[in-house]
Write a structure and sequence with these properties.
Length: about 325
């Protein structure tokens, strides 16, 4: 069962259904009505194209049938974690595997506190999914699924493998989560830019914004003795420095980073467009909170929070790379 059937949830759950799993999508009527009418089509930047016709999956707006689920994937936005999971209490079977496939740090802890009798595991989706009309969900970047390893996953490894989503298992997922958080610090920059990811990352000024944001994050992580995993061709600290090289050099040396579908955007950009609250508190907010914990200022990440909150409240505008860089440099210089 997929709790929070948005783009990520429908793509992952859909791939599992194509591989033969019995899948129920639980989510908002907007998407559920669409896929109930059109079915689901799953494509990717590598040429994959799978059709999941109506009748090969179930949909529900409430997790009423959760008691029959062997595996629950939680893919709601972080702000909705507690509320969504509370709906499972008293219905879900003890011992059920609950896998959090969410951005940020600590969603699994929230779930575990609410469902103490389940096997709750942390996970990360390391790719981007773009929703197109007519029930099409497109994986627009490279990446797979990373999960906290546990013997309880054994019955599900085969279907994930068959679905083309082999689980990368880690004894401790926290370094991977912090590394993914570093990458996700680009989400607010992309949302404020109003551009697709590939176009935004090809612009040096936007990359300078990301470099400022990541370097600040790495400084507080280092003070907190957090060592993020390596998810990019080079270690995180090196990548943060090299983001600032000229555009032509970046394209030649880091062309793989730009191997992104031309239409792919961050989920935060989609949230702003749909008038939804973003996950900024679980991205830049994690860095600000960690900085406060270790006694270091985080003005760059704080400024990004302010700009995104303003956009959430209706102050929407498209920032050029130069304009946004000026904002973040001023915040960095102030050290507030």
């Amino acid at each position: 069962m997929v709790i929070g059937a948005g783009s990520i949830g429908i793509f992952v759950g859909g791939k599992l259904a194509v591989a033969g799993a019995d899948v129920t999508f639980v989510g908002r009527p907007r998407l559920l009505d669409e896929i109930t009418e059109s079915g689901v089509r799953l494509t990717d930047l590598d040429g994959g194209d799978d059709a999941l016709p109506v009748g090969r999956f179930r949909v529900a707006t409430e997790p009423d049938d959760i008691g029959s689920a062997d595996l629950v994937l939680v893919t709601v936005k972080s702000a909705a974690t507690a509320e969504s999971v509370r709906e499972l209490t008293g219905k879900i079977r003890p011992g059920t595997v609950v896998l959090s496939l969410q951005n940020g740090i600590g969603n699994d802890t929230v779930i575990r506190e609410i469902l103490p009798h389940c096997v709750v595991l942390a996970g990360m989706v390391l790719f981007n999914v773009v929703h197109h009309p007519g029930g099409r969900f497109h994986r627009g970047t490279e990446g797979g699924l990373a999960v906290q390893d546990d013997p309880a996953l054994a019955p599900f490894l085969g279907v994930f493998q068959q679905a083309g989503l082999a689980l990368r298992r880690y004894p401790d997922l926290r370094p991977v989560q912090w590394a993914k958080l570093l990458l996700n610090l680009n989400n607010p920059i992309n949302a404020l830019s109003g551009r697709p990811l590939r176009e935004q990352l090809a612009d040096r000024n936007y990359r300078r914004c990301l470099a400022l944001t990541q370097r600040e994050a790495l400084t507080v992580m280092n003070r907190a003795r957090i060592a993020p995993a390596r998810l990019t061709p080079l270690p995180p600290a090196v990548m943060a420095r090299l983001l600032t090289v000229p555009d032509g050099v970046f394209r030649r040396v880091f062309g793989r980073v730009l191997a992104i579908d031309p239409m792919a955007r961050s989920s935060m950009a989609d949230d702003l467009e749909l008038g939804r609250k973003t996950e900024i508190s679980w991205l830049c907010g994690e860095i600000v909170g960690l900085g406060a914990m270790v006694g270091l200022p985080t003005p760059v990440n704080q400024r990004l929070i302010e700009l995104i909150v303003a956009a959430e409240q209706g102050d929407r505008r498209t920032w050029t790379g130069a304009e946004l860089l000026e904002q973040l440099r001023a915040a960095h210089a102030s050290g507030r």
